[in-house]
UniProtKB/TrEMBL annotation:
It holds the Pfam family DUF2062. The chain crosses the membrane at residues 97-114, 147-173. This is Uncharacterized protein (DUF2062 family). Keywords: Membrane, Transmembrane, Transmembrane helix. It comes from the Bacteria. InterPro entries: DUF2062. Residues 30-174 form the DUF2062 domain.
């Protein structure tokens, strides 16, 4: 188990010089001092964890605004842009509806009073699933969804941050335990 994590860490560390070389040769070279200060392309524990947290939070933003939102949040938090961009891919056409239902129920928990999830069939004419019916259903979710999305995003961001921290430190903790047993 620890061997793949060590390989992943080595591979991520090997990406950093390649990213720097790419930045030196591209039109982004003029922004390199700012990018370096922001740690946007550092493949170390803290920037990776912040990038994953940013990607998990911004992954719930609708459609084409996920990546630009992640870039802004990564710049603000000094997180890794690559990790943030990859982390947004947990949302896709297959996972959007379950995530929105989960966000609705989370928002309903936070809000006072009873909230009921509208059925998708109530907004779909003839029971047909269309993009327009999905949009109407999302609007029918209302305030619980608006409250639940940022709440779910924060929970997923914290979970992503902690997971990266634990996975990064797991080989070192394993090595420490192994050395303690051998003494």
């Amino acid at each position: 188990m620890m061997q793949p994590l060590c390989r992943l860490r080595r591979w991520l560390r090997a990406l950093e010089p390649r990213a720097r070389q790419l930045l030196d040769r591209s039109w982004l070279a003029q922004f390199q001092p700012w990018l370096e200060q922001r740690a946007l392309f550092r493949f170390q524990r803290q920037p990776l964890a912040r990038g994953v947290a940013a990607g998990m939070f911004c992954g719930l933003i609708p459609g084409p605004l996920q990546i630009p939102g992640t870039l802004l949040v990564c710049a603000w938090l000094r997180g890794n842009v690559v990790a943030g961009g990859v982390a947004t891919f947990y949302t896709n056409p297959l996972t959007t509806v379950p995530l929105y239902v989960m966000a609705f129920y989370l928002g309903a928990l936070v809000m006072p009073g009873a909230q009921t999830l509208p059925a998708l069939s109530s907004v779909a004419p003839g029971g047909e699933f269309t993009v327009q019916a999905l949009g109407t259903w999302m609007q029918a979710l209302g305030t619980p969804l608006l409250i639940g999305l940022p709440t779910l995003g924060l929970l997923l961001a914290v979970l992503g941050y902690v997971t990266v921290q634990l996975l990064w430190l797991a080989p070192a903790l394993h090595r420490k335990r192994r050395l303690a047993r051998s003494r």
